[in-house]
Amino acid sequence: MSIEFHVEARAGTARAGRLITAHGEIATPVFMPVGTQASVKAVPQDTLEELGVQILLGNTYHLYLRPGVETVRKLGGLHGFMSWPRAILTDSGGFQVFSLNELRKVTEGGVTFRSHLDGGSHFFSPESAMAAQIGLGADIVMAFDECTEYPADRARAKTSMELTLRWAERSKKHFEEHKHEVPWSAASAFRLSASGGDHVGTAAPSTGSGQAPGCPVERSSAAFDSGTTVVEEQSGLRPDGQPGAAVPTCHGKTQSLFGIVQGGMDLELRKESALRTIEIGFPGYGIGGLSVGEPRELTREVVEATLEHLPTDKPRYLMGVGTPEEIVEYARLGVDMMDCVLPTRAARHGLLFTSEGRVSIKQARYAQDQGPLDPNCACRVCQRYSRAYLRHLYAANEVLAQVLNTIHNLSFYLDTMRRVRHSIRLGEESRCF
Amino acid sequence: MSIEFHVEARAGTARAGRLITAHGEIATPVFMPVGTQASVKAVPQDTLEELGVQILLGNTYHLYLRPGVETVRKLGGLHGFMSWPRAILTDSGGFQVFSLNELRKVTEGGVTFRSHLDGGSHFFSPESAMAAQIGLGADIVMAFDECTEYPADRARAKTSMELTLRWAERSKKHFEEHKHEVPWSAASAFRLSASGGDHVGTAAPSTGSGQAPGCPVERSSAAFDSGTTVVEEQSGLRPDGQPGAAVPTCHGKTQSLFGIVQGGMDLELRKESALRTIEIGFPGYGIGGLSVGEPRELTREVVEATLEHLPTDKPRYLMGVGTPEEIVEYARLGVDMMDCVLPTRAARHGLLFTSEGRVSIKQARYAQDQGPLDPNCACRVCQRYSRAYLRHLYAANEVLAQVLNTIHNLSFYLDTMRRVRHSIRLGEESRCF
Asked: How far is CA A172 from the centre of its chain?
């Protein structure tokens, strides 16, 4: 069984729900912090847990280059490697291949590019991107797509969209044939944690901190000697109808592949891309190719138009957004999942988001400001430190500045989404959303 | 009343005891992490508390330059500024003035030097170093001394020693005349924590986390409207016998000034320096001018010889040491306090101290090592993460590498000293130390 998704409340076009993955439940709409190289920069995993992060994002492009998929696979996949017991989503590498590499060559087969680390030549294809993501073992993986550049005329956007659709078919095929290779096993050394989040219900057993590790993996074929309960697994059938290898599950869920809608800024192409991606069939849909330099009003227009054509009973994931105002806006339009480096990257540059607006903590005006960063924030940074201290840390180039700034910004984003979910649920009851 | 110091157990020349300061008790022998710019690099204060740090060191030279003494004073001294409710010791700036500045000019008055930040010209004297430290408000401050360079012939070491003694007199005079200016007040916004440490007894009240802030300051003169109990304060007398300004205390303790023994590597000069520093009279004594390039055997020789002449009922603070082996060695000789950047600096370079020896985590051999960094370590890093992950973080230049590596190294150092204190106490009972 792939992921489950339940919409539990509505307010206009907004929905509040639960996304049930192999590594726990996620309350939606959700903002996913980005852990590019298997680390949400500067923040230890226990702090992420305390903040209530239920799902984070890893970048396949970066991890493929360093430390490499095989290393991560051997350490039990990303969950084991980075000791993160909750959910993980990986992107396919498609975006970075385009954004980080000027010298690249796109063919029907895939993309040849040079590593930004050492200039070495590499090739990504739908098949290799699926293989990498299966090896990394995230709960949700993304189809290998072409992120259409901006601006792009209609002909170019259409050509790109068609390529993405062909690559989506290949992604799904390879995924279905190889998903049994996901490195989830009882031997993976990580600890399940039941703490944090909205407590809308979690599938993860309450082992508490410091308890015995291990994901109780059920396999659908008695041939696997796992010593755990055998579970019926209908996805053990291959596309050709033959029985396939048993697919590892965790808490009854397999790894899941989402498709991605492209089409540039053309609303008709977006509709076509959505319908044809749905035809291929995925348990969830990403909206890609946005926040690539277009005006914000255009982003909204395209998001709204695309959402119209995506199923309401499946999660809709808007990739790569946004500011605190934008994530609220898109959640209200009906987006269920978002990710962005903004809170973490801005934090490292001293740009902090607060309930009273943006604070550029490096400014001299804060040098003797005794007050908390955000008087309305309950995070450990605002509860303990003054603006003057945060400003000093940043000016003095102290590592702690990155740590504390990031903790606050993440807390602010997560708190923002928490309020959105709450107001959606209230909206249904009181009709005043 | 200045600090209290109680030796509670002996084993040979080693002593285990309690140092009672204005901001809590410290179990000795103690290793003090260095928080150079009001931050122990990469480690948030709550983590320091969890590790059991009872006292940390701040560098006056750095803080004087940035953010400046006035800023810190206005934020309630270092305790308020960095939100550290436990004990703090500051050095006088003397060492950095010598170690960080090639162009400096020493006169009887003090030292002219150039800021390593912007090349601006500054002047440090015993008086200004005391004023700065009083403004920063640490529990223990150090006399302004000249750290004799190494090597130095006897004549040079003697001249330097004599200067340090004259500066020690001036330091004490200025300190006694101005210690009432320490910025400790009920208005300082920080929270007292009763957690951590050896629980040999703590003077700090158990306010718990999140409770009301404020150091209950008692002042010795009824003229101060503090609303708290008036405490007899004998140090309210000035050197000329006139009643001086009331000296702020916290939990009945005032800020305290330690003297520093110099004399180079000459054992006779060291003896003379010790006796003449004792003559001036301080509640505790630093042993300076060591770990400046001399062979380790010589360090030990000089430490041993110096300790012979220092009072046994006062804390002896060996400045700037050492490796895990060295701090154990010096503790057994009878040193009560030590500080060093080694655990924190080495951590940031991937050099980790473990019960099985030093681990240079960057090495390829760890790339797929699933085991913990130190199987005998109970710290959160060793309890959660694999060597492979730590190695990846370091190789990938992730900030989290600095955070986790530092947490482990500090934990190792603090645990090492905990064992030493324990073995000293056992040694007294079982006579097998």
From this structure: 19
Task: Put residue A198 in one of left, alpha, beta given phi > 0 → left and psi -120 to 50 → alpha.
Answer: alpha
Distance CA A358, CA A352 (A): 6
Model ipTM value: 0.90
By Cβ distance, the residue of A384, A392, A398 closest to B41 is A398
Give the three-class secondary structure for A141.
strand
- What are the residues of chain B with a beta carbon less than 8 Å away from any beta carbon of chain A? 37-39, 41-46, 66-67, 71, 74-75, 81-83, 189, 191, 210, 367-368, 370, 380, 383-386, 388-389, 392-393, 395-396, 398-400, 402-404
Say yes or no for a CB contact (<8 Å) between B83 and A43: no
Placement of tokens 């230049």 in the chain: B397
Cβ separation of B38 and A392 shorter than 8 Å? yes
Cα B251–chain centre separation: 20
**Cα B73 to Cα A386: distance, rounded to the nearest angstrom:** 14
pLDDT band, residue A100 (cuts 50/70/90):
confident
Interface contact flag, A392 B41, Cβ < 8 Å? no
Query: Which chain A residues touch B38 with a CB distance below 8 Å?
Result: 389, 392-393
Verify whether the Cβ–Cβ distance B71 to A403 is below 8 Å. Answer: no
Q: Which residue of B lies nearest to A404 if distances are taken between CA atoms?
A: B44
Chain B residues with beta carbon closer than 8 angstroms to that of A73: none
**Secondary structure of chain B in the HEC alphabet?**
CCCEEEEEEEECCEEEEEEEECCEEEEECEEECECCCCCCCCCCHHHHHHHCCCEEEEEHHHHHHCCCHHHHHHCCHHHHHCCCCCEEEEECCHHHHHHCCCCEEECCCCEEEECCCCCCEEEECHHHHHHHHHHHCCCEEECCCCCCCCCCCHHHHHHHHHHHHHHHHHHHHHHHHHHHHCCCCCCCCCCCCCCCCCCCCCCCCCCCCCCCCCCCEECCCCCCCCCCCCCCCHHHECCCCCECCCCCEECCECCEEEEEECCCCCHHHHHHHHHHHHHHCCCCEEECCCCCCCCHHHHHHHHHHHHHCCCCCCCEEECCCCCHHHHHHHHHHCCCEEECCHHHHHHHCCEEEECCEEEECCCHHHCCCCCECCCCCCCHHHHHCEHHHHHHHHHCCCHHHHHHHHHHHHHHHHHHHHHHHHHHHHHHHHCCC
Residues of A in contact with B75 (CB under 8 A): 368, 370, 386, 388-389
Catalytic residue numbers of B?
91, 339
Residue B29, token pair as written in the block: 């022998």
Position B431 confidence tier, pLDDT thresholds 50, 70, 90: very low
Name the minimum distance, in Å, from the CA of A136 to any CA of chain B. 14
| pLDDT > 50? residue B224 | no
In the numeric block, the tokens 């006056």 are attached to B60
Residues of A in contact with B386 (CB under 8 A): 75, 81, 83, 189
Q: In what order do the strands lie in the sheet with B14-21?
A: B4-11, B14-21, B24-28
Residue A432's pLDDT band (cuts 50, 70, 90):
very low
Tens of pLDDT, residues A23-65: 999 999 999 999 999 999 999 999 999 999 999 999 999 999 9
Amino acid of residue B256: S
- A348 and A406 in contact (C-beta within 8 Å)? yes
The DSSP H or E segment spanning A49 is helix A45-51
Contact B355, B322 (CB under 8 A): no
Question: Look-up: residue for tokens 């059920």?
Answer: A218
For residue A329, which amino acid is it? E
Active site residue A91: yes
Instruction: Report CB contact under 8 Å: A392, B83.
Output: no
- Report the distance separating Cα A321 and Cα B134, nearest Å: 49
Cα dist. B380→A47, A237, A376 in Å? Answer: 12, 43, 30
